[in-house]
Design goal:
single chain; alpha/beta; 9 helices; 12% strand; globular; binds 6-O-phosphono-alpha-D-glucopyranose; binds magnesium ion
């Protein structure tokens, strides 16, 4: 194995909590029921597809224009919350583990559906750290489609069989499997039966990859 592609939200940094807070505010303002369980279904899913999942609980139908306005409202709230991020918000074990993987010669990439990836990487001090960044700005299909991971491996100059993907979402694990990658799951994805390597803490990656 030569490369490792990391999801961002919920793997490198807990922006998953900020996504939840922003969607929750939008849903409350619209009197739409929304909870953590529904939020788990949004992991790895694009902004508009996430909105569609939330609107399953709505009592009225929204026009396409209204949907775009709701998604923009959520994104503006989310971007305000992102401003508070610092390198201290990297998840436990991330800094040490990534440094060690680099030292072992692995090429490291980000594979995230988020269009806010560049800003997030800057806030947490990872601007320029990864060998490749594939994100919501360069894909047309979000996870579970493998596109974002395939683009990442292509940017690294590696084939999927030579790469692991690290994910916290079931959609992301499915994307990894569809692309022919070895899958490592943390959090929600560690409870998923189709995940190849299930981990409880980020540093366990060091004992898996070779
Ligand atoms: C990640 C998150 C999803 C989010 C998606 C799009 O995959 O896990 O919850 O919906 O990115 O994020 P964006 O920042 O572009 O709205
Ligand atoms: Mg995630």
């Amino acid at each position: 194995m030569k490369g490792i592609i990391f999801d961002l939200d919920g793997v490198i940094v807990s922006t998953d909590k900020l996504h939840y807070a922003a969607w929750k505010k939008m849903a409350d303002d619209e009197s739409i029921y929304f909870d953590e369980q529904i939020n788990n279904r949004l992991r790895g899913v694009s902004r508009m597809a996430s909105l569609e999942i939330i609107l399953e609980k709505a009592n009225k139908t929204y026009t396409d224009e209204e949907k775009l306005a709701l998604a923009e409202k959520k994104n503006n709230l989310y971007r305000e919350l992102l401003k508070e991020l610092t390198p201290a918000d990297r998840l436990p074990g991330v800094t040490k583990t990534l440094d060690e993987l680099k030292a072992r010669g692995f090429k490291l990439a980000i594979g995230s559906s988020s269009k806010n990836t560049p800003q997030i990487l800057k806030y947490i001090g990872f601007d320029g750290f990864f060998d490749a960044v594939s994100d919501g700005n360069n894909i047309t299909h979000s996870k579970p489609d493998p596109e974002v991971f395939l683009k990442a491996s292509e940017m690294l100059g590696l084939s999927p069989e030579d790469c692991y993907i690290v994910e916290d979402s079931t959609a992301g694990i499915e994307a990894g499997l569809a692309g022919g990658f070895s899958t490592i799951g943390i959090g929600d994805a560690a409870l998923y039966e189709r995940t190849l390597y299930k981990i409880r803490s980020f540093d366990e990656i060091l004992g898996i990859v070779k």
